[in-house]
Hints:
The complex is a heterodimer of chains A (about 800) and B (about 350). Chain A has about 800 residues and is of the alpha+beta class. Helices cover about 25% and strands about 30% of the residues of chain A. Chain A is built from 21 helices and 41 strands. In chain A, helix 14 crosses helix 17 and helix 20 (about 730-740) packs antiparallel against helix 21. In chain B, about 40% of the residues are buried. In chain B, strands 1-4-5-9-8-7-6 form a 7-stranded mixed β-sheet. Helix content of chain B is about 40%, strand content about 20%. Chain B is α+β, with helices and mostly antiparallel strands.
Amino acid sequence: MRVPYSWLLDYIDPEISAEELANLLTLSGIEVESVETFGPNLPGVVVGEVKSLEPHPGRSNLVLVDTDLGGEIVRIVCGAKNMQPGDKVPVAKPGSTLPGGRRIEEAVIYGSSSTGMICSAQELDLELGTEDEILILDQDAKTGSPVDKVLGFDDKVIELELTPNRSDCLSMIGVAYETAALTGAEIKMPAMDPPETEPSLESIFNVRIEDPDLCPRYTARAVKEVEIKKSPLWMQLRLLKAGIRPISNIVDITNYVMWEFGQPLHAFDLKLLESNEIVVRRAEEEETLVTLDGVERKLTPEALVITDGKTPIGLAGVMGGENTEISQATREVLIEAAGFNPTNIRRTARRYNLPSEASQRFEKGVNPEAVLWSQNRAALLMNRYADGKVLQGVVDFNQSPARPAIISVNPERVNRILGTEIPGNDIRDVLSKLGFKVNSKTSDELEVIVPLRRGDVKIEEDVVEEVARLYGYNRIPYTLPRGELLENRQTEEERLHNLTRDIFTASGFYEAVTYSFINFNDLVRLRYSADDPKMKTIPVQNPFSEEQGVMRTTILPGLLRVIRHNISHRELNQLFFEVGSVYETDNLPLQELPRENARLAVAATGMVPEQNWAVSSREADFFTVKGVLEALFSRLQIEDYQFIPAQMPFSHPTRCAKVKIGGSELGFLGQIHPDVAGDWEIDQPVTVGEFDLTVLEKKANLVPRINPLPRYPAASRDLAVVVPREIPAQQLEQAIKKAGGDLVSEVKLFDLYEGKQIPKGKRSLAYSITFRLEQRTLTDEEVNRAQENIQKALFELGAVLRS
Amino acid sequence: MLDKLKELEDEAKQNIEAVKDLDELKEARVRFLGKKGELTKLLRSLGSAPPEDRPVIGKKANALREELERAIELKEQSLRDARKGEQWENERIDVTLPGSPATVGQKHPLTLVQEEIKEIFVGLGFQLAYGPEIESDYYNFEALNIPADHPARDMQDSYYITDQFLLRTHTSPVQIRAMEKRAPKLPVRVICLGKVYRRDDDATHSSMFHQCEGLAVDSDITFADLKGTLHLFAREMFGPGQKVRFRPSFFPFTEPSAEVDISCIMCGGSGCRVCSNSGWLEILGAGMVHPRVLEVSGYDPRKSTGFAFGMGIERIAMLKYGIGDLRLFFSNDLRFLKQFN
Lengths: 803, 341
Ligand SMILES: [Zn+2]
């Protein structure tokens, strides 16, 4: 809502600047978006009075205009001819510069000298008239005075950003009421007493409402013998400041009055109605209406239409029909001011995609009192500025006259909610400033009668807010809640997620946060087959694009996009993880809330650490991630995990594993198949993994159990064996532990070698084995015997000692 | 005899002084102080001196021995030091070389801010609450006093899954879930952090973002309590000098409602581009829980009151870290993320 400040002064004079008022409004909950000066400065552009017009001797399309600039008379060559002697016009004097940057100089045009330029509105940055139409100023403009002042370019426009409950401030008078409450200044209502002529409209015209639930109020007034012309310049300027394009006097007046009172008005060309009645009803199936924007609308019974008893002439509350539009030929006008069902208007405006100043107001609620004010005000202005004769009376259908809300308010409760000690009298005071009537019902109960314009105030808490905002939110003290303390430690889930983040970040990984929706094709690009559960995605009904088409069932597409993005910025070495939900359901379309389960996803590519002088770096691969996972398992005291060779639809055929804890599947870890990586435009090896954190949570020991320090020394032996390549390391380790029994406390693989000196198809593994007993020191013999047993067990697996 | 002693002294001192390494020093010691050294030789010839001079010469000769011992010791020390110094020089490192890289990653800035927010409110006795991101129309709208066709639904353009389910547009549905879970017991004191979704996507809006919701319900919670809590939060989050400002506003699920500004952290309140010259930055919406919301959640609005607030995590993070572009959060650009290390 744009509020031209000089216009507001018609209804109230708060005796403060626009900026000061804006600040007061903002702090009272009417948020001011901006305070702007309406137009540019126009130095050197003054009011001139046209003295005489003469044809240009050489050019028939030009005229010579003698113009009085207040003391001096100058001759100007001009291309427009819409002015008469005596008209006041804007003249740009030589040396001045127009808003477009055009500089005006003394000139000789086809042999005639020209001292300055007579301007059109558009040349002054004003959206009025046409380019070759001189702006005719009001007669009372003083010759020689600056035009920017005359046009009110220095006026301030306050732009409000209103919350949906404060539709009362979608009107100048509503803002004036608010201003009155904030400053104590008095409201001056505009004149609304049109002179009337016989006969009464009621005697010749009828209004019938067939659906009063959708149209509880309908009023009509008629004005005859109107002359369609431009509205006065001041009205056009005010509409421009409000952001409305001036059209003609009748249409401008309906808009002007809507701005004043917030009540949308519509003007029909009365002579174009096919009968002497207005019938408001639901549209019939297959009925059509060409609206004012020239579009033919197919109607349905859900839409309410205004008809002349035969055909629709308007889409109620949204837009009028072309068939009864005000035109240059209009002589009789029927003014409509009505009240419509907000929900119905909202739906209709949405269905036809026709949000308008009118529908916006009907949707949010209009002051019922303003219906007749607007009728009378518009009629008065049509009498004044269209020379119309106003027929007697208003035809008024009023299904259920509005009653003001009466609310019991307990001053003690007001203070109890706010945490204040505002005296009862001050509460009464604040409410009366707002124009609320306050009666004392009992000693501790007030009866508050809310004016109709404030339809948003319905319950005691609404009144509490009114008191608080006028008392001043910033005068309310700062306290802290007291009361019982609650147990509020973090949940196991939360702590597991934190721990996971800690271990991954400590290992060099960065946390990513990617979108919860993905492109379904991303799953296809991961080679998931149509019947894979991951393909059972929950679709979003109204996405902007395919990119957000479905809810993710895996985090991998998000991470792969991150990898690709960073590679494109030459960040080749990347370690990423994400902790987030995936969305899964068994039933589509969704019948109940889906499962939202937490996953850990990981992606690693490039070299770790980055190439540097100090330590050697190696490619981030399967084992880079496995190491961090093992650190996590260790921290959670999970020992019974397994990496089992497996394949995912998108994985490298021999570099992928399923990860299990006990019998439960935790997830997978593996390198992306080079072809798949290629499809993702990633041309370097990437290892990815995804793990179910709900499974991990069940197996995790968040609080580590601590053993006493060993009391007896350990013995350590190294053992290097050459084994067939197909024997998994895990099997060897298990064999060592089994053969060594209780004596073995730790087994570490410290070297792995394949190549020279080792037969083809075999590899050498070197273990460091720690022997220790809790209760005593081991003897050398015991350790040797254990070592022998271990060797024997390994030999059974086809191992030979490496010399 | 005394002259000879003096001669020996001068020669020995010069000799020791000129020594270049420990071997030469050893030679010098043998030559002057050894069993067959020159000083011994000289003392042996003491018998030829007049008897009255002997004590004096003997004394002087002993003093010279001590003096030379000390000189040799000092020389030895300095030679040893010089040899160590050479070793140190060989072992010198260039301390200006870059360190060997520590592979440290970092949490996402949105996680960092969420952790900080949690810490503040957990310290104030709030419990953590959770709710689904795919939410029913009832919890996301109806129960929060936003019936179908309410203009307030325009404030939040939603992503729908079906007519009944949608991606939650705010964390406020968790208010209802938390109250339903605890009703009719008092107090309720929860915060919920999580992802929310709105159907707009431009430089200042993201289709997915994060919010933090807070709720406190008890027999005597006041608007002043809301002010105190949020004032404390602002100071903990942005620094002790932080001022807050409460402006009346509108949310369907609170009454009275407020929008909360903090004094601009860029300019300190004097006005700049970031705060559009107002000196204030809007950071959250809040209010007293609407009686209808209390009622549908199982509380009697005449016996209990509550406050609720909601804030955008991205907004807080942008202000806290001076981030100008919202889209950076979801780009996961390493050039951005590495700056948090
Ligand atoms: Zn600032």
